[in-house]
TrEMBL record:
This is Methyltransferase type 11 domain-containing protein. Signal peptide: none annotated. InterPro entries: Methyltransf_11, SAM-dependent_MTases_sf. It holds the Pfam family Methyltransf_11. It comes from the Bacteria. Gene3D superfamilies: Vaccinia Virus protein VP39. Residues 42-140 form the Methyltransferase type domain.
Length: 184
C-alpha cells in the first residue's frame, strides 16, 4: 500500500488541506491571472483536488480536470467535489501523468503542484503535457526549491521548441521561498 492510500490517504488529505492552503491560494492567484476566459485546466497530480476546489471559487468560468495515480486520493477528491456541489465543473480521474487519457489540444493550462518530485518519467510527463495542451497553452509546475529541475528543463526544450522555461521562487508558508514555480 502506498502512503496515499487507505487511512494514510485520509490523514494526508487533512494535513495537506490545512498546510497547503496558503500555497494553493498563491497558485490560484497566478493561474487566475493567466487562464483564458472559459478555459480548460488540467491539474496533474491533483491528490484530493484541493487546488481545483480553490480555483473553482476564484474562477467560476473554468472547466477543471484533475488526475492522480492514487485511486484513494481521487475518491477523497470526488467526495470533496460532491460536498462543494461542483460535479458539473470539476472532473477527477485516476491516471498517470506520463499516460494521460485525454485527446490532443484539450487544455489551455496544465498545472502541477508538489508532484514533480514523484514522477519517474519526467520526459514522458512533459511530452504528455505538450500533447494535451492547445498550441498557445501554458505549463506551470510548482515544487520544492531543492528538487532538481534539470530533466524538466531538458524535456521542455525538446517538447516546447522556441519557448523558454522561467523559474520563480515562491513564498507561501514561510518568510523565505520554500517552493519554485516553473512556467512555460
Amino acid at each position: 500500500m502506498s502512503y496515499f492510500e487507505g487511512r494514510s490517504g485520509e490523514r494526508y488529505d487533512r494535513r495537506a488541506a490545512r498546510l497547503n492552503r496558503p500555497l494553493f491560494r498563491r497558485i490560484c492567484r497566478d493561474l487566475a491571472a493567466v487562464a483564458p476566459r472559459d478555459g480548460a485546466v488540467l491539474d496533474a497530480g491533483t491528490g484530493s483536488g484541493h487546488l481545483l476546489l480553490e480555483l473553482a471559487r476564484v474562477r467560476p468560468d473554468l472547466r477543471l480536470t484533475g488526475v492522480d495515480l492514487s485511486k484513494d486520493m481521487i475518491a477523497i477528491g470526488r467526495r470533496h467535489v460532491r460536498a462543494a456541489a461542483l460535479e458539473d465543473r470539476i472532473t477527477l480521474d485516476v491516471a498517470d501523468v506520463a499516460e494521460l487519457p485525454y485527446p490532443d489540444d484539450r487544455f489551455d493550462l496544465v498545472v502541477s503542484t508538489l508532484s514533480m518530485h514523484h514522477w519517474d518519467r519526467v520526459e514522458r510527463a512533459v511530452a504528455e503535457f505538450s500533447r494535451v495542451l492547445r498550441p498557445e497553452g501554458a505549463l506551470w509546475v510548482y515544487d520544492f526549491r531543492f528538487v532538481s529541475a534539470g530533466r524538466l528543463a531538458q524535456a521542455v526544450r525538446e517538447r516546447f521548441p522556441g519557448r523558454t522555461m522561467r523559474r520563480t521562487p515562491v513564498r507561501a508558508l514561510l518568510p523565505f521561498p520554500v517552493f519554485a514555480a516553473y512556467t512555460v
